[in-house]
């Protein structure tokens, strides 16, 4: 993944940014922001200092096959999950960061090819979500895409994907939509974006099947 340039802080009439200091510059930047903001009583707050993790834009896709009624998911190791005390091999949607000068939609298609080795021939935008409002500026655009789900073994495993140059070790899954949705509904999908996407699919699946089951 290429290093990205953090976006400048937007101006806002209810926020005064007194200073910005780069505290760390590695794969991602961390800035110390000294600021004041307007309170609900109309007064300005006292000066505050916040650590802001500058991850920027991201995109994720719910890959859905309306003919076979299956979703394509991935599994990979996540160190932050281990640090949080949960299972570090997580079931996820294909997702990735948007590079400088790139739009979310082509970024999502690029990530889909890298991680799952497949394309989506239709895309619809579901929404934009701030993933960690207390610490990071990462804003994720979530899409649903029509795919042809590959055949899987009895365990739901299709094969492997990921960009070798980035050291990715990804397992590709093809699950019945009912199974994936049930896991999300019962709290067994701890990845937040994946849970949002599957719960959205639960609400919209019938409509997608009507509209997407023909070429």
Question: How do the helices and strands line up, and which of them pair or pack?
Answer:
Blueprint lengths: L14 E11 L3 E9 L10 E7 L2 E9 L4 E8 L1 H5 L5 E4 L2 E3 L6 H13 L5 E9 L8 E8 L10 E5 L8 E7 H9 L6 H21 L3
Helix pairs in contact: 3-4
Task: Report what the structure shows.
This protein is α+β, with helices and mostly antiparallel strands and 215 residues long. It contains 4 helices and 11 strands. The chain has helices spanning 79-83, 104-116, 177-185, 192-212, and strands spanning 15-25, 29-37, 48-54, 57-65, 70-77, 89-92, 95-97, 122-130, 139-146, 157-161, 170-176. The model has no long low-confidence stretch (mean pLDDT 94).
């Amino acid at each position: 993944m290429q290093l990205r340039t953090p976006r400048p802080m937007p101006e806002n009439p209810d926020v005064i940014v007194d200073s910005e200091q780069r505290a760390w510059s590695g794969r991602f930047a961390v800035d110390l922001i000294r600021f004041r903001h307007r309170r609900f009583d109309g007064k300005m707050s006292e000066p505050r200092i916040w650590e802001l993790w500058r991850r920027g834009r991201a995109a994720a896709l719910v890959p859905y096959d309306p003919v076979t009624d299956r979703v394509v998911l991935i599994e990979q190791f996540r160190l932050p999950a281990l640090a949080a005390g949960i299972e570090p091999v997580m079931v996820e949607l294909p997702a990735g960061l948007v590079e400088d000068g790139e739009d979310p939609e082509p970024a999502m298609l690029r990530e889909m090819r890298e991680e799952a080795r497949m394309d989506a021939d239709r895309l619809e935008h579901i929404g934009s979500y701030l993933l960690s409002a207390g610490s990071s500026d990462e804003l994720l655009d979530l899409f649903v895409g029509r795919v042809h789900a590959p055949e899987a073994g009895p365990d739901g495993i299709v094969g492997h994907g990921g960009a070798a140059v980035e050291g990715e070790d990804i397992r590709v899954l093809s699950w019945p939509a009912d199974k994936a949705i049930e896991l999300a509904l019962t709290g067994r999908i701890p990845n937040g974006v994946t849970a949002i996407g599957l719960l959205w699919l639960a609400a919209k699946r019938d409509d997608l099947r009507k509209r997407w089951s023909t070429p």
